[in-house]
Amino acid sequence: MKIEGRNAVLELLKTDKEIDKILMQKGAEGSLGRIFAMAREKKVRVQFADARLMDKESETGRCQGVIAFVSEYEYADFSKLCAPKEGGRLVIVCDGIEDVHNLGSIIRVAECAGADGVVIPKNKSAQVTGAVVRVSEGAANHVQVARVPGVNYAVDELKKSGFWVYALEADGECIYDCDLTGDVALVVGGENSGVSALTKKKCDKILSLPLKGKVNSLNASVALGVAAYEAVRQRR
Questions:
Q1: How many helices and strands in the chain, by DSSP H and E?
Q2: CA-based nearest residue to 189, from 74, 75, 94
Q3: Fewer CB atoms < 10 Å away: N or C end of the chain?
Q4: C-alpha distances in angstroms, 231 versus 82, 122, 184?
Q5: What pLDDT sits at residue 102?
Q6: How would you label 86-125 residue by residue, b for 16+ Cβ within 10 Å and e otherwise?
Q7: Where are the beta strands (DSSP E) in the chain?
Q8: Residues 6+ apart with CB under 8 A from 90
Q9: Residue 48 to residue 36: CA distance in whole angstroms
């Protein structure tokens, strides 16, 4: 897998993940110097290339002069996300998030909000690729992402483990009137279909954000950001 972009590679170098090599553009400046220094310190092989080769190797077309080559993404154990923890747990469940940019943004929100992990289904969902890692600005290198057979399975298991599971959808209870302390899982749906009907039935509540404008919905990652930080606010 290729991890592209300066921030994504910098965050990768802060982890213990094994890096096969780093391809870096000749003559590039700025934060690439810091990446090179960190790579040398960790004894990661750095290979220099001209801009034409960098463009050829890039899968996103926006590598910013650096590409790291790593093994395929290693998903977290879902059962560990369900394990008891002091102080309350926060887990994000993705239902039908098929766009890599949305998934990357959701992972970034989850990491910044201190969520314990993100859950995605194996089918009908974007998976963690190099593009997702880049969009997440490297957050995918730090937050645990678990894959499950299906979203409804995840909801059932989380509820068995003591979580309150809330779907983020329209026509629900105002999120600001809900207690988001304790063990909470937030289910966010895809851009077109939202949270599926059966999943909404399985959730403890449907929570909504107050919309004051003429547009009737927010982007999935933006809605999650508001909800996740309401949970952060309540836990302070």
A1: 9, 10
A2: 94
A3: C
A4: 18, 27, 9
A5: 95
A6: eeebbbbbbbbbebbbbbbbbbbbbbbbebbbbbbbeeeb
A7: 2-4, 19-25, 46-49, 66-70, 90-95, 117-121, 145-148, 164-174, 184-189, 205-208
A8: 113, 114, 115, 116, 184, 185, 186, 228, 231
A9: 10
| pLDDT confidence tier of residue 225, bands split at 50, 70 and 90 | very high
Tokens of 144: 């645990």
Average pLDDT, the chain: 93
Q: Which two tokens stand for residue 8?
A: 């994504």
Amino acid at residue number 56? K
Please write the tens of the pLDDT for every residue from 8-33: 999 999 999 899 999 999 987 888 99
State the pTM of this model: 0.87
The single-letter code of the amino acid at 32 is L
Q: Token digits for 60?
A: 């996103």
